[in-house]
Known about the structure:
The structure holds two protein chains of two kinds. Chain A is built from six helices and two strands. By secondary structure, chain A is mostly helical. Chain A has two domains: 11-83, Orthogonal Bundle (Arc Repressor Mutant, subunit A), CATH 1.10.10.10; 90-121, no CATH class. A two-stranded antiparallel sheet of chain A has the order 1-2. In chain A, a hairpin with a 3-residue loop joins strand 1 and strand 2 (71-74). In chain A, helix 1 crosses helix 3 (48-60). Chain A is elongated. Chain A starts with 10 loop residues before the first helix and ends with a helix. The model of chain A has no long low-confidence stretch (mean pLDDT 92). Chain B is an alpha/beta fold. Chain B folds into two domains: 4-213, P-loop containing nucleotide triphosphate hydrolases (Rossmann fold); 220-286, Alpha-Beta Plaits. Chain B has helices at 43-50, 93-103, 109-119, 132-146, 162-178, 190-193, 214-219, 228-234, 259-268, 278-286; strands at 4-14, 17-28, 32-37, 58-63, 66-67, 78-81, 150-154, 182-187, 199-204, 207-213, 221-227, 240-246, 249-255, 272-275. A six-stranded mixed β-sheet of chain B has the order 6-7-8-3-9-10, sandwiched between helices. Chain B has a four-stranded antiparallel β-sheet with strand order 2-1-4-5, with helices on one face. Chain B has a four-stranded antiparallel β-sheet with strand order 12-13-11-14, with helices on both faces. In chain B, helix 3 (109-119) packs antiparallel against helix 4 (132-146). Chain B starts with a strand and ends in a 7-residue tail after the last helix.
Amino acid sequence: MDASFDDQKPIFIQIKEKIEDQIVNGYLQEDEKIPSTTQMVDFYKVNHLTISKGMNLLADEGVIYKKRGVGMFVAEGAQRKVKQQRKASFADDYVRPMMQEAEKLGLSEDEVNHLIQQVRRGDRG
Amino acid sequence: MNTKVDVRDVSLNYRKMNVIDQVSFTMETGKTYGLIGRNGAGKTTLLSLLTGFRLPDAGDIQVNGEPLFENRMMMPKVNLIYPADYADESDNAKSYFETAEKYRPHFDRAYAEELAEKFGFPVKKPINKLSTGMQSAFNATLGLAARTEVTLFDEVYNGMDAPTREAFYQEFVREQERHPRIMVLSTHLVSEMDYLFDHVFMLHNQKLIADAPTDELQSRAFTVTGGQALVDEVTKQMAVIHEEELGGMKRAVIYDANNDVKQKEAAEAGLGIGAVTLQDLFIYLTGGGNGHE
Lengths: 125, 293
């Protein structure tokens, strides 16, 4: 739950991802109330409109739902849903940038695969 | 109750100098407006016009369709909080709160006392015996607890230490949620307070040079980074407001309402794209050496 942001993506997307992280990591369970907008404004030092924008995206995707006058809650099956979405974008988010860097450095696919094996075995930090 | 403030073509002269030059904007309940500008840009003057303390030389200011200046109905609804000179003020905060309760219909004394404790200033000590930072915290308390429909804070943080400022920001956000009003925060310390602003008014050389929702204003600006020649080539037709070079690399800041198209162009040319903070945008747009002091 890092309170810092990078400048490569809009902040509301990063807010959305931070809430998703809490769901994927199990800090926020199904039917649990997520922090209020005001709490998130304090924590992240981000405008409430930006927080709402991120939360609305999650609500549209059915990851969280609103209880009138109470707040936002984690939807049933939210963790599974977020994991599925992240799997779908794994190639774009992680593999492609890795391949681009590998190409820049002149690493072959075999070398990259070898590195993946090494990391997996714990030979490398 | 919803309040709307209309500022239309307002100008003000002072000793033959133009101090506010044809400024127009609107404000509505529930929004927090950041009024930013360098020293001498006209922030305090604009706030005193918004309080109805002075009459503009041209244009007019209306609240819910009624003229603001010397309007008895409006005066109790508008509250300007500014770094007042308390050198001769031997009353204490407690008696101020008692007075405020009489003149401000929505003043919440219990909340004011709660804030005094939170901000850490004594309520029984004469105001002129408090430090500058504590006097500022006292001012901030009057502004928050009065719950006036239009609340204007002029450089309220003067002398406050960092923990008190942080406590003020927290209470500010809570108050705006519990009792929505028109809140204006004037400042030149943008980076610390930018997340409080829903909307930004940027004053420069007596004119309003930006009037937009904060996220929209910020999204008009972006940085492009890459090899110097490539950056020069790609940004030839773009509105560059700032540029710097480092070891053959160049970063240019683009400010353009048509930012989506321009950003795409730059990304396709292979340049790195980044965001610009409100503080940096403020510096680039007003940093032309025309500020005062």
